């Protein structure tokens, strides 16, 4: 016991991992506004804006494929040997990628540090960074290792919040640093990553030795985690929608700036100001729209609004490509920022729709879906962007995005039926539960709120709590609190009963939604 207590005191605090994650996301976000122009300036693109966007999407595809190839292996190795070594590998891979990118810039001839054939080096560095893994996977695991059932919700909320802040601050900062040159924001990004690596070296290993697991080599499968998402009807729908969320984000970060440069023939400084609007708008949407909407109408309403706005905005962008009304793109940036409210609400609904012991599987499957969406989104842009832009139709990529997002809109407006709870039984022994109920009338066959007073009801574990009617709050407060361990992450949550329909019924429901 004494040795265990001593090891516990040597471990880092969760806020240290949160701050480390903030620095790493910030380092990548600062470079977002300049990456399209870096690829345009390479010898391969030769200043061609269309070719530069195509190369950027190809590099993103290669990076995502490399990440997918090693994600499962690195995750298993971190369970066995600890989080710190693989956090360090991932950070150094990111720093190497950013450093090589900064040396490949050719927009000016007076840079003291530069390399020739920069496009070759950047393709190589993008591949290496992907093989080194996604730092977010290891930071989430580290926060789980350092959390107790009482602090896990707060710690994970802080981690997700730090990512949001970095994505809000990073692009505007990169846009300001790039007003006179492209290399400066990338050098700042590289320095930030190296600073994060130094901080990590000063930290202790967060995973205790008694919690390290042996490696099951049969489970090292890049797509193995996705099997979990076909276990229930709602999780299938969540998987589709999570994929579409990441797909939309990939399109925005990959081709938005090249699109504006080609469609409206605008300069870099004016175009990058769109990212400032998007970043500030995203922060405002979370603070001023998401939280009040969830309290008023529930998580499902936020998902519906987010998907509808995103899909409609993609269609608007496709139409604007045939005009010269660039000023409307600032309205578009604000609408796209508002559409991002679907992500946190969607995560909350998914988290409250699985059992406590399956939270780790949910996060692993969601991470796998993110990588798959990166691959398909960036490769789709690569296939569509250059041919359509050279044919005089640069907005085609947004029509494509609108069509891809349309099933997500349909599914969003079907969530209420998928999650409509059946009659609650005492102690939830045979009950099916739901999330995001707005009114007692939404609960089928419940004649009195007393029917649920003794039920173990669902609580969303997302960024924002799922909205519940006042009549249910007392019952939720009285619901028994249980503590479990899920894949090494200690979680404290109330019971979340699962839908378990037959496989045929699952697929029939999904195709019926679409």
From TrEMBL:
Could you tell me which SUPFAM superfamilies the record lists for this protein? MFS general substrate transporter (SSF103473)
Q: How does it sit in the membrane?
A: Multi-pass membrane protein
What keywords were assigned to this record? Membrane, Transmembrane, Transmembrane helix
Q: Name one GO cellular component term.
A: membrane
- GO MF terms on file? transmembrane transporter activity
Q: Superkingdom of this entry's organism? A: Eukaryota
| InterPro entries reported in the protein's UniProt record | MFS (IPR011701), MFS_trans_sf (IPR036259), Sugar_transporter_CS (IPR005829)
Where are its TM segments located? 12-35, 55-74, 86-105, 156-177, 184-203, 223-240, 247-264, 270-289, 301-319, 325-343, 397-415
Subcellular location, record wording: Membrane
* Database matches in PANTHER family: FI18259P1-RELATED, ZGC:174356
Can you say what this protein is called? Answer: Major facilitator superfamily (MFS) profile domain-containing protein
Q: Which organism is it from?
A: Alexandrium monilatum
């Amino acid at each position: 016991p004494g040795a265990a207590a001593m090891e516990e005191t040597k471990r880092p605090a969760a806020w240290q991992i949160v701050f480390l994650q903030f620095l790493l996301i910030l380092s990548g976000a600062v470079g977002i506004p300049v990456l399209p122009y870096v690829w345009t300036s390479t010898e391969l693109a030769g200043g061609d804006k269309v070719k530069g966007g195509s190369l950027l999407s190809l590099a993103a595809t290669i990076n995502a494929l490399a990440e997918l190839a090693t994600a499962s292996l690195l995750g298993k190795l971190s369970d066995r040997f600890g989080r710190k070594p693989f956090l360090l590998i991932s950070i150094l891979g990111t720093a190497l990628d950013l450093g090589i990118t900064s040396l490949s810039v050719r927009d000016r001839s007076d840079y003291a540090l530069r390399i020739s054939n920069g496009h070759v080096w950047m393709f190589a560095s993008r591949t290496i960074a992907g093989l080194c893994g996604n730092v977010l996977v290891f930071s989430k695991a580290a926060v789980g290792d350092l959390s107790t059932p009482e602090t896990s919700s707060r710690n994970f909320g802080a981690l997700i919040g730090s990512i949001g802040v970095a994505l809000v601050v990073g692009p505007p900062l990169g846009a300001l640093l790039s007003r006179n040159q492209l290399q400066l924001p990338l050098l700042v990004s590289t320095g930030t990553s190296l600073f994060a690596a130094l901080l990590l070296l000063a930290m202790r290993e967060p995973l205790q030795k008694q919690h390290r697991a042996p490696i099951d080599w049969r489970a090292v499968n890049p797509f193995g985690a996705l099997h979990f998402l076909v276990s229930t009807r709602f999780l299938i729908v969540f998987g589709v929608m999570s994929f579409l969320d990441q797909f939309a984000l990939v399109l925005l970060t990959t081709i938005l700036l090249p699109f504006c440069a080609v469609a409206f023939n605008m300069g870099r400084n004016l175009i990058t100001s769109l990212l400032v609007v998007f970043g500030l708008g995203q922060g405002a949407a979370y603070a001023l729209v998401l939280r009040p909407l969830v309290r008023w109408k529930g998580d499902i309403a936020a998902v519906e609004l987010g998907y509808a706005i995103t899909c409609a905005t993609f269609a608007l962008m496709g139409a604007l490509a045939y005009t010269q009304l660039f000023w409307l793109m600032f309205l578009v940036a604000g609408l796209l920022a508002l559409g991002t409210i679907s992500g946190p609400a969607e995560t909350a609904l998914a988290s409250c729709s699985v059992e406590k012991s399956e939270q780790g599987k949910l996060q692993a499957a969601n991470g796998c879906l993110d990588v798959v969406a990166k691959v398909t989104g960036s490769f789709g842009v690569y296939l569509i962007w250059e041919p359509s832009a050279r044919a005089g139709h640069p907005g085609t990529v947004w029509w494509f995005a609108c069509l891809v997002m349309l099933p997500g809109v349909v599914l969003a407006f079907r969530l209420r039926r998928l999650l409509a709870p059946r009659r609650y039984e005492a102690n939830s022994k045979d009950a099916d539960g739901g999330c995001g109920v707005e009114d007692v009338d939404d609960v089928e066959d419940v004649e009195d709120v007393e029917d649920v007073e003794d039920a173990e009801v669902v609580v969303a574990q997302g960024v924002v709590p799922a909205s519940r009617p006042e009549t249910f709050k007392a019952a939720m407060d009285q619901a028994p609190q249980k503590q479990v361990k899920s894949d090494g992450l200690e979680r404290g949550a109330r019971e979340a009963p699962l839908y378990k329909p037959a496989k045929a019924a699952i697929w029939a429901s999904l195709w019926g939604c679409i």
